[in-house]
């Protein structure tokens, strides 16, 4: 497999920041020799050299991973991701990722970074899972013969956990 020249072979005209990034990539290259990982590093090397800005190159790659992870999480949860219109974001109607669980739909603000979407989607999933756990616990309590409203049940079970 042919790959991009290593930093040692890179032109001396690189800025110190670019050279440091290329040196790090070359160092990491030794950690995993799988073809897919080497191709990723080749791509990253080309991005760093072409842009002259390692931070933006790394950021683009990390955003790509975040986009993949957000799509995968949505798929695992049976959600469809939809991007809000630019106008709805500008008008502050959609300012963060919102999930409509009954519709299996997550709406993402227009222009939001994938890494922000991933964090917000993870929080929405965790909250939904906690709500499902509490619902199942309440239903089990009722099935066991406890006759109480949700507030009384929550107060009783919250105290019991302390």
Descriptive overview:
With 162 residues, the chain is mostly helical. The chain is 62% helix and 7% strand. It has helices at residues 16-29, 35-51, 54-76, 86-90, 114-143, 150-160, and strands spanning 80-83, 98-100, 105-108. The protein has a three-stranded mixed sheet with strand order 1-3-2, covered by helices on one side. Helix 1 packs antiparallel against helix 2 (35-51) and helix 3 (54-76) packs parallel to helix 5. The longest helix is centred in the C-terminal third of the chain and has 30 residues, at 114-143. The radius of gyration is 24 Å and the shape is elongated. Mean pLDDT is 87; it is low at 1-10.
Give the overall pLDDT as a whole number: 87
Helix content: 55-70%
Radius of gyration, Cα only, in angstroms?
24 Å
Describe the biggest sheet?
A: 3 strands, mixed
Total beta-strand segments: 3
What series of H and E elements makes up the topology? HHHEHEEHH
Number of helices: 6
Shape descriptor: elongated
Structural class: mainly alpha
Neighbour order of strands in the largest sheet: 1-3-2
Tell me the span between the first and last alpha carbons.
Answer: 59 Å
Q: How much β-strand is present in the residues?
A: 5-15%
Poorly predicted runs: 1-10
């Amino acid at each position: 497999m042919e790959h991009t020249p290593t930093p040692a072979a890179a032109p001396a005209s690189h800025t110190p920041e670019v050279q440091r990034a290329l040196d790090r990539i070359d160092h990491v290259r030794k950690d995993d020799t799988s073809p897919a990982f080497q191709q990723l590093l080749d791509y990253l090397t080309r991005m760093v050299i072409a842009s002259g800005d390692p931070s933006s190159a790394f950021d683009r790659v990390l955003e790509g991973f975040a986009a993949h992870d957000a799509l995968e999480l949505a798929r695992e949860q049976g959600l469809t991701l939809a991007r809000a219109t630019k106008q709805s974001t500008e008008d502050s109607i959609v300012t963060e990722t919102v999930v409509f669980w009954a519709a299996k739909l997550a709406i993402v603000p227009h222009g939001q970074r994938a890494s922000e979407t991933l964090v917000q989607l993870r929080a929405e999933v965790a909250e939904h899972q906690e709500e499902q756990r509490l619902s199942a616990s309440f239903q089990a309590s009722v099935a066991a013969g406890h006759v109480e409203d949700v507030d009384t049940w929550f107060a009783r079970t919250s105290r019991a956990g302390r």
